[in-house]
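Q: I'm writing up a methods section and want to include an example of the input and output format. Could you take the sequence below and give the corresponding predicted structure tokens, formatted cleanly so I can copy it straight into the document?
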Amino acid sequence: MKALITAGGQGTRLRPITYTINKHLFPIANKPMLFHALEKVAKAGIKDIAININEGDKELPAVVGEGKQFGVKITYIEQKGGPLGLAHIIANAKKWIGREDLLFYLGDNIVAGDLKSLIDKFYREKLDCLLTLSRVRDPERFGVPAIKKGRITAVEEKPQKPKSSFAVTGIYLYRPAILEAVNNIKPSSRGEYEISDAHSYLIKKGYRVGYEEITGWWKDTGKPEDLLEGNGLILSALRQSEIPFKKLESGWRIEGAVEIGRGTKLKGEIVIRGPVVIGSNCLLEDACIDPYTSIGDGVVIKKTEISHSIICEGTQILECGVRIVDSLLGKNSVVKAEDATLPSGHKLVIGDNAQVEL
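A: Here is the clean output for your methods example:
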């Protein structure tokens, strides 16, 4: 079995963050989002992986490399013609896939557990296609299956009136029949080759299409709040602390599962309540870091409280005297008190689709 992971698209719903970084490289629990997918696939025993990227993308291959750190071989496939749908991604990789079975993994999805049980079921039940489903509050955002007597009878993409409360999540298992399907569908009203149409083709042609409900958690990180929730879900798996200090100084309080990188310094009154991940070579001074927060390398935080946020590398948060919550701060950002410089007042440089609360 081979694995094809998606890492293209524009990430428009995550702007302004994605103006300067591919969303699949945005850090979740201090690790590029795509790395979580690669680790899952490698752990399942799949060694031959292709990553779908935008035409001309040089950044992502430079960051991810050839796969040695994951114990796999990585091939990069540019999506010719731009983003034309998930089924188009598979058709575009036809030559690389060959006659192999395929794990298709959307690189911006975060899931619990490993993939081995799904692969085992796929082969045990001799399926041509295995879809993973999750109950969601807003199925109209996803591909939605119609289920009758325990069998999927159709799959509809982003329906206005969903036929079930399930969403088809971003992990799919296929026999080579999927290549027949993607080559025999037409563009939808959105102008895309929908993967849901390929699944419906397989069903109509009598191929064996099964499903497995994900009973843990699954998160499609399409919106800023999804990134924060995905970050929290990954952090919730932390079970013990890893801190580079032989003893805690007076005035420090570290509770729960907390990871702190080497070279990070704590000064003054410090409260850290896990699960929290803090990178290397940071400086925290008179700061409170509350649960479900990730702090990247080289971050400076002084006289500020932070909760349920992602703070990317190189950011400085200086003497704000306020509590920052539910926030995403991109690399090398600067946040400081309004009266730190003259003239006093709120000074803003805001990109498209930014959200600010004052």
